[in-house]
Amino acid sequence: MRALFARILRVLTPGGGADVRSGPEAALDDLWQRTAPGMPPRWQKRFVADYRDFAAATCEEAAVRGDRTRLALGDYLALRRRTITALPMATIVECTADAPWPDLPGGDLRLKTLRRAAADVAGWTNDLASAEDDQRARQENLVTVWAREHGCPLSTARERVVRMRDNRLRELQLLAEELTAGDGVPHSDRAAVRRYVNALRSFVSATLLWLGATGRFEPRWTPDRHGAPTPLP
Question: Residues of the chain whose pLDDT is less than 70?
């Protein structure tokens, strides 16, 4: 894993000498060439940081699985947020949706919180989709970690994880609604914040719907007319 990412990360390293003729290096180079030239330096810096952190976290996850390490629930959740690739993808969405991260005075903790919530929803939903496969492979999964930490059957743990994921999605929705309404956002920045939040909500909806379309998970959420994930009746 480390050798693989050492090759891939050369794509994002000036003068790194990456071989971009084939494989994942070519795919990342193609993505980079289609996005980075049209985006500001701060966007490029953020994507590189996001992708490097994803690479480091994936190597950590591989080591945990190889050593059969049992993580505490909090440690597992923190690692899963970094391995799901949702944060690098959320940065790409800024480009494809023409909705760059709003440059608010002093930054905005709520936007960072919204972004982390999007990653959590994606990661936890993927864990629910792959729970049985992970159990067969004797790999840690949010469902098994929850069951171990709370001393409950896997069926109960799965129900609790579904509830936890749904609550996280509701938190995301409430925060998104607050931001799009302009609460606490300077008037001059409201349009930019609204574009960014709507793009991120659309990304979350697409993630959930794709899991349903591929048969990996029951699509219990559907986008409303604004693209926001909404519970099915």
Answer: 106-107, 215-233
Please return the burial class of 136, using the count of CB atoms within 10 Å of its CB with bins 0-12, 13-18 and 19+: exposed
Q: How far apart are CA 202 and CA 226, in angstroms?
A: 8
The DSSP bridge partners found for residue 223 are 229
Instruction: Look at the alpha carbons of 133, 138, 139, 145 in this order and tell me if their dihedral is positive or negative.
Output: positive
The label of the residue with tokens 């050593």 reads 67
| Digit-coded pLDDT (tens) for 195-228 | 999 999 999 988 888 777 776 655 555 555 555 5
Give the end-to-end CA distance of the chain in Å, rounded to a whole number.
43
Could you give the CA distance from residue 139 to residue 154 in angstroms, rounded to a whole number?
14
Residue 108 Rama label (left phi>0; alpha psi -120 to 50; beta): beta
**Residue corresponding to tokens 């930019």:** 192
Angle, in degrees to the nearest 10, between helices 190-213 and 86-96 = 120
* Token digits of residue 53: 């952190």
- Rounded CA separation 8/29 (Å): 9
